[in-house]
Design goal:
The complex is a heterodimer. In chain A, helix 2 packs antiparallel against helix 6 (216-298). Helices cover 62% and strands 13% of the residues of chain A. Chain A is built from six helices and six strands; from the N terminus they run ααβαβαβαβββα. By secondary structure, chain A is of the alpha/beta class. Chain A is elongated and about 125 Å long. By secondary structure, chain B is of the alpha+beta class. Chain B has helices at residues 92-108, 113-128, and strands at 4-9, 14-20, 22-27, 30-34, 41-44, 49-54, 61-73, 76-86. In chain B, helix 1 packs antiparallel against helix 2 (113-128). The longest helix of chain B has 17 residues, at 92-108. The mean pLDDT of chain B is 85. Classes of the chains: A alpha/beta, B alpha+beta. The A-B interface holds A 39, 42-43, 45-47, 49-50, 52-53, 56-57, 147-148, 151, 207-214, 218-219, 222-223, 226, 229-230, 233 and B 7, 9-14, 27-29, 32, 39-44, 68-69, 71, 73-74, 78, 80, 82-83.
Chain lengths: 299, 133
């Protein structure tokens, strides 16, 4: 009996300390979601303006023949940028992204394309390493707080590979979109060849006739890479916010679970202690009775 | 007189927005001044340029703008900078330090493109802060 009591006490102690850790993680994640969301919102004006500028150039130049917008006639390889997190403790966050990436790879392979993965986030990298799959690019260390410099680095690698003759012919991106605190969705988008996401041009919003400095071609040359950088930056920010939200949810359910376990164990422990006491009392009573009987027999 | 609606944005945040009478920026073709009623323009800005926004009754708003674009349409002026800093926010001592370091590495290696870029940026930040360079 005593052994069981000790065992239960030990388990309660260990579950309690686990709950403390998960609770702390939960609180950290919730405070970081707010920050991540603010960064997401702060990036919106730039994105809106750059999308506007790209569509302005494209609507002004009738024949857009930029290498970044033209689909190759016979694409042979496709790059897939997979955005995962650096740390675990976030439920199915990474598993969902990787599953979606696998589905995309299968789809691309079905079209006869060779797939080259570019991976962001330590979890995605180890996932690929464990399966000894080759990666064409890997970046880690910033998944929970990406800066524009990181997006630029990634965009540079992708664009230079896209421009090479024997490089990749298409680029897709798989990341988690932050819909709300409770919902995050894995989305798959093609970023190259470029499709500018444009709101429908109603007659009132027809683009004015722009002058370009120096020329439309030059403006497009420097505009498109920035546009891609901003798309990637957006994906990184969305993914960071989603990661924190996923972590908060996972840690909240872990904490809840731990608290439930604690109450179950506490009840069992009380029962065991009560049983022990009852037994001790009955032993004492039994012993006292036996002594009393023996004394009565002597007289 | 009509006013210009000006927005200065970088990828990480909106630096400044408001109304102005005139915007002066430096594109790769040279300085460009924009007043209300200007024809639509899309220009590429130089690395390490200084943006000047003239306002009514207030002092000029000066910002160091590194790369990016200027787009003007219908009295809306957007400055999309890869990185930008208001003159009032510049850490002068840090910028001077950065300029000196960049110049030292240019002297050591004339071909050092990174250092040249860094020197340009630091100089723009100092000019935006109203320092002589």
């Amino acid at each position: 009996m005593g052994a069981q009591l000790r065992l239960l006490r030990r388990r309660i102690k260990s579950v309690k300390s686990t709950a403390k850790i998960t609770r702390a993680q939960e609180l950290i994640a919730s405070s970081r979601i707010v920050k991540a969301q603010q960064r997401m919102h702060a990036a919106v004006p730039y994105e809106r303006e750059i999308t506007h500028a790209v569509s302005a150039v494209l609507s002004n130049t009738s024949s857009v023949d930029h290498p970044l917008t033209v689909a190759k006639e016979q694409p042979a390889t496709a790059g897939v940028l997979i955005v995962t997190s650096d740390r675990g403790f976030c439920g199915g966050f990474n598993a969902n992204v990787l599953r979606e990436a696998e589905a995309l790879k299968a789809h691309l392979a079905g079209r006869g394309l060779q797939v080259k993965p570019f991976v962001v986030g330590r979890k995605g990298i180890t996932w690929h390493r464990f399966r000894s799959r080759e990666m064409s690019g890997e970046w880690d260390g910033f998944s929970d707080n990406p800066s524009y410099g990181h997006a630029k680095e990634i965009a540079d690698a992708l664009i230079s590979s896209f421009k090479q003759d024997d490089g990749i012919d298409e680029i897709h991106i798989v990341y988690t979109e932050f819909v709300s605190m409770l919902t995050q969705e894995v989305v798959v988008k093609r970023i190259l060849p470029l499709e500018v996401e444009e709101t429908e041009a109603t007659p009132e919003t027809v683009m004015p006739y722009y002058e370009f400095e120096p020329t439309a071609g030059d403006v497009l040359d420097s505009l498109l890479p920035r546009y891609i950088e901003s798309r990637i930056f957006n994906a990184l920010l969305q993914s960071a916010a989603s990661e924190h939200a996923a972590r908060r949810r996972a840690m909240k359910s872990a904490t809840d679970n731990a608290n439930e376990l604690i109450s179950v164990f506490t009840r069992q422990m009380n029962q065991a202690r009560q049983a022990e006491i009852t037994q001790e009392i009955s032993e004492i009573v039994g012993g006292a009775n036996a002594l009393a009987d023996a004394a009565a027999g002597k007289e | 007189m009509a006013k210009l609606r000006v927005g200065v944005v970088s990828p990480e945040r909106e630096i400044w927005s408001g109304e102005a009478d005139m915007v002066i920026a430096k594109t790769v073709d040279g300085e460009i001044g924009i007043m209300p009623g200007h024809a639509p323009v899309l220009g590429v800005l130089v690395e390490g340029g200084v943006l000047r926004v003239k306002r009514d009754g207030e002092g000029d708003l000066v910002a160091a703008v590194h790369g990016g674009f200027l787009s003007v349409a219908d009295n809306d002026v957007s400055v999309l900078a890869e990185a930008a800093e208001l003159g009032s926010e510049v850490d002068v001592a840090a910028a001077k330090d950065a300029l000196q370091r960049a110049q030292a590495s240019i002297e050591a290696d004339q071909e050092d493109a990174d250092a040249r870029l860094e020197a340009k940026r630091a100089a723009a930040r100092l000019r935006a802060a109203g320092e002589e360079v």
